[in-house]
Amino acid sequence: MAKTMIEFQHVKKDFGNHSVIKDISFEVQEGEIFVLVGTSGSGKTTTLKMINQLFVQTEGDILFNGKKIKDYNLRELRLNVGYVLQQIALFPTMTVEQNIALIPEMKHFKKEDIKRRVDQLLGDVDLDPEKYRNRHPSDLSGGEQQRIGILRAIASEPPVVLFDEPFSALDPLVRNQLQDLVLKLHQKLKNTIIFVTHDMDEALKLGDRIGVMNDGKLLQVATPKEIAQNPENAFVENFFSATVGKNLYKTPIEKIIRTGFEIPEPHEAEPISEINAKDTLEKAFAAMAEVEILKVVDEDKSTVNWVDRASLFRYLSETKH
């Protein structure tokens, strides 16, 4: 049975006479990516900031690893919660190595361990340590800076990492690359991630479960498949449809699978072809010129799932334009 890492119990947050969060309760399990999604002003960032107590709740309790957050020493709490912002906030006078090493040094890691950790992390995100460790943030592109921001947040291997709309200011290509990076690092580290975004596409790609917020309320918490097939109300349905209706033929196959359009493994006699999970719906139809079934594989050529022409047409017909 999964262990609960973060729990909100009837949490409310007021700023003056204005109620921003209106009695929300939910749990985040250890090792999952939990995505909070909603329009601007829905309360998702306020909810995130209460986890590391940048905002203190007005009512209710928040538990971190079974213990009330208010009972933690604030410094201890924040050292065990990584935080990645949209405004990357790297220290400009520090090198890449110094930025990444900041929290491990505060937690008194050994110097040789820190140096080894920095080089390992840079290699994990395809940045050559020899070329990058002594550079300053001003020498980096926006995507490179955000990579360093992520590494700084995970360098001490905190059990929980918070992402506050970290990629919204980046171009689509870089954004997609960094989403892939989050998934890659999460698969390796198995940490618990709470990720805030206003983009349902991003939520569907990253989230094990998704919480949809509007006007300070948590409307639905469910898997991507459940939200796609059984939205709680008209707001959730419309919010979902407004995103998935964009550029349909450019939709990655992995996203279609996550929303539930899949088929059982075919019989050996059936002719099949193969497609990468990151390939698009357009490419899938081209690959089906002579076969009915596609085996969907990941980067390691392991089978992820199966799709057929009928399932893809169903996806198109059920997606609002």
Automatic annotation (TrEMBL):
It comes from the Bacteria. GO terms for molecular function: ABC-type quaternary ammonium compound transporting activity; ATP binding; ATP hydrolysis activity. PROSITE patterns: ABC_TRANSPORTER_1, ABC_TRANSPORTER_2. It is an enzyme of class 7 (translocase). Keywords: ATP-binding, Nucleotide-binding, Transport. Residues 6-240 form the ABC transporter domain. SUPFAM superfamilies: P-loop containing nucleoside triphosphate hydrolases. Its EC number is 7.6.2.9. Pfam families: ABC_tran (PF00005). Signal peptide: none annotated. Belongs to the ABC transporter superfamily. This is ABC-type quaternary amine transporter. It comes from Pediococcus pentosaceus (strain ATCC 25745 / CCUG 21536 / LMG 10740 / 183-1w). The lineage of its organism: Bacteria, Bacillati, Bacillota, Bacilli, Lactobacillales.
